[in-house]
Amino acid sequence: MPGDSQTRTDPSSGPANVLLTTSRDGGREPDACRRLLGETHDRPRRVLGVTYGTAPARWHAQVVGHTAGDVLDSAVISVGDLTRAAAGGDGPDAGPPGIPSVRTIGEPTDLVGLGLELEEQLTAWEGPEAETVVCLDSVTDLLTHVDAETARRFLNRVSEAVSATGARAHYHFDPAGHDDRTVAAVRDVFDAELDLREADADDADP
Asked: Most buried residue among 11, 76, 202, 205 by CB atoms closer than 10 A?
């Protein structure tokens, strides 16, 4: 298990694996995601997105597209049947214009396949010439397909691969609708947590 989790206020640097806790209707999540992916850094980046239920081209445009100048490479692993049509390519590695690689995991419960795709991409990008950053969106969606213990084991595997390859990753999570035991199991995996819910609530106040 990683060291004791700590709450962070600066999402642009620090621990390798960060839980990004927010509410689904919160307004600060997109900006925090881009900052955790190194939007404000001068160092070149390789960006990997793992998405549930969002078309790869849409995720790429919203998260990566507007900062493409310092992104050397990008890829999306798209989870769910709908993404085969959304990928729009001729094969498993073909993607929409602007995304060099889109890979599809058709069955959301196939965590072995998803883990292998993640590890393969992280290993391929390992090296000093650029920083690899990962967005997994989201743990909330993952928990709709598998139980908490299965999710915890998978997240442990991913976080270990991220650390072993010198990458950084953040993982979106909305605790609403989950019991305390499930939330604790998720939190236990990560080096740190960035919790936006209080700030989101302040924004919502008249």
From this structure: 76
The total of other beta-carbon atoms located within 10 Å of residue 68's CB is 13
Residue spans of the chain under pLDDT 70: 1-13, 26, 39-41, 66-69, 82-99, 199-206
pLDDT digits (tens, 9 = 90+) for 79-122: 997 544 444 443 445 455 566 789 999 999 999 999 999 999 99
Tell me the whole-structure pTM to 2 decimals. Answer: 0.84
Q: 53-59, long-range: CB within 8 Å, 24+ apart, which pairs?
A: 53/79, 53/80, 53/82, 53/141, 54/78, 54/137, 55/82, 55/83, 55/86, 56/83, 56/86, 56/87, 56/95, 56/96, 56/99, 56/102, 57/86, 57/88, 57/95, 57/96, 57/98, 57/99, 59/137
